[in-house]
Each structure stands twice: as structure tokens, then as C-alpha cells.
Amino acid sequence: MTPPHRPPVATDAQAVGRWRMPPEWHPHAACWMAWPSHTVMSGARRHEVVGELERMARAIAHFEPLHVAVDPHHLDEARRCLPESATLHPMPVEDHWMRDTGPTFVLDDAQTLHALRWNFNGWGHKIRPMPDADPRLAQRVALSLDIDTTSMPIVGEGGSWHVDGEGTLIVTQTSILNPNRNPGLTRREAEDVFRHWLGVTHVVWLPGSRLDTITDGHVDGIASFVRPGVLLATGADGNDEWAREAKENLRALRLARDARGRHFDIGLLPCVDFDVLPAAVADDPDFAPEYVNFYLPNRGVVMASFGDPAADAQARDIVQQAFPDRHIAQMPLRGIARRGGGIHCCTQQQPATISL
């Protein structure tokens, strides 16, 4: 029996024309980050992660205004670490994954900024007990900007999809069509939500990952748009389970077409050689060395290095060739990568309200 069709509920927001999520290379008014609390991590692990967040924030602030959500208990620490130009917003915060806990910003045809809340549930109830702060972070960020916000009719995270600005959205099945987030949700129902709220016309579904026990295979660890029709993707060396999953995602990308009927031009980023990394890093089951998990501030690219000199240099060269007009800022990332994420996961772009 086919379940009843659920429309994309439009609750408390009215658009002039259509809502649309601009691509990440659309000019940014600002970047948003979150400062982690001591309840998330402490000791040496916290020191390492906070140091990486500091370097990330300073790199981004070189390109565009930076806003950081900070729990009031950690304001002094954040002020010491963050650039003076950063705007700090005191509010309850648990973790630093702003991409997933913060809002997705969209514009309507009148260039009105609006925030979407994706009902964060700890990546499928993996956090127990679930803290109160992060599920409400998207709404608090929107309130700090004095803009409207709407709760989506499905559960999701901002790292689950990418858009190209020309109607294409790439998303993973394992993150959205997962019983731990949206039991019983069909592709059609999810696509209706994406079409209505993100302004897309065509959805490319990737298999995602069954091995990723944190995010269930977010797309920002698999591929990223360079521009419409062009992608950078994580390579698939070897024949272990992770490589086989990567190959399945690459196969789906190569078979797919975008909203304008084009096959994707896909550049492959290297895989890290785990043998050249310290054992504590290489053996960490949550370590996610994904060069594709970069952030695109105005006129720049902020990307990671992981300690494999050859792969780090090769990845930088490939990214520079993909973005010849942008300045590349590459920074060491091990603490955050050992928590299963990357630079894109820690950031959320606020689009500028200009004509597309």
C-alpha cells in the first residue's frame, strides 16, 4: 500500500515568488560558526579542536565577515581565540557543527533572507541524552538576525546536500531516507520539500554510506560543486569497504545528469595514505580525512591538510586548478577530522541579498 502523500508544509513564511538556496559561490554577507562547550569535549582533545577552529575562523575572516554563536560561559575563551573582527553572539551552544545544527539560509525573488530549521535530532538520535541547545540553534541564529524562520516537515542536516544554483540538488539516501530521521519518508516526499524550500527542480540521489556511523554519509564528505556541471569528489583507492562505498557513490554521480541534462565533469581528490600518519590518528575509526569538505568564502577556498605531504599538496593543486580565481588557504585538520567532520561541517554561509 502506498503511504499518503505529504505536501511540503509552508507554515509561517510567505515568499515573493519562490524560495531558493543560492549555491555556495553566491556572494556571502557572512559566515557563521559555533564555539563548542566544555560538555562536548575537554582536555587535550578540546585543546586540539579549539586550536583548529581558531585557525579556521582567522582564515575565513580574511575573506568575509564572521559571526560565531558562543555559549555565554565560553565568551572569554572565544574572545581570546577568535579574530577581533568576529561578531560573537551569546546563546546556548553545545557543539561546533554549525552546518548541521544551524539554519539553511534561503532567498526569495525579492531577495528577502529567510532561515530554515531542519529539526536536528543528533544525526538520528546518536547523541544520548540529546542536549537542548543545538536543536534550537537554528532558530536562535535567525532571531539574532531578526529574520523569519520556518521548521521543515522533515529531519535533515545541512551537510546532507549540495545545490548548484541552476536547479540541481545532490543528496544521500542514507542521511535523509533513514528511519532514524524520517521513518517512512519516500523520495517523492523528500523531493517535494527540496523543490519548495530550496528552489530545486532536479534531485540526484547518491547511495551514501552505511559505514559512516556518525552522519550516515553526508554528501559534503563525498562531493562538492565547483560550478554547475562540475564537481570535485573523494577518490576511491583500494578495495576495502570504504573504497567500495566511495566507488558506488562515484558510479551514481557518473550516471546522473543535472537539471539541465548535463553529465557531471568530475575531478577526483586523492585519498590520504594512512601509513604515513601517527597511529593514534590513522587508527581512529571516526577519522574523516576528506579534502572535499572545504568552505568557499568570498574569493577564497578554506581547505584541510591531514599530514600526508604528498596527498596534501596534490589536493591543494587540484583545488587551485578547479578554482583558479580564488585564493587557497590550507590548514592542518586532525582534531576535527577525528570527530568525523571537516571545515564545511563547521561553517554555514549567509548569502548576500543581491540579484542572482
- Superfamily (CATH H level) name: L-arginine/glycine Amidinotransferase, Chain A
Oligomeric grouping of the chains: single chain
Main structural class: alpha/beta
Strand content: 15-25%
Number of domains: 1
How many strand segments? 15
DSSP helix count? 10
Mean pLDDT: 94
CATH architecture: 5-stranded Propeller
CATH class, named Alpha Beta
- And the CATH topology? L-arginine/glycine Amidinotransferase, Chain A
What is the CA-CA span between the terminal residues? 43 Å
GO biological process, one term: putrescine biosynthetic process
Keywords: Hydrolase
GO molecular function, one term: protein-arginine deiminase activity
Protein name: Agmatine deiminase
Could you outline the blueprint of secondary structure elements for this entry?
Blueprint: E1 28-35, H1 43-61, E2 66-70, H2 75-81, E3 87-90, H3 98-101, E4 104-107, E5 113-117, H4 122-125, H5 137-145, E6 149-151, E7 161-163, E8 168-172, H6 173-176, H7 187-198, E9 202-206, E10 223-227, E11 230-234, H8 241-255, E12 265-269, H9 279-282, E13 300-305, H10 309-322, E14 327-332, E15 348-351
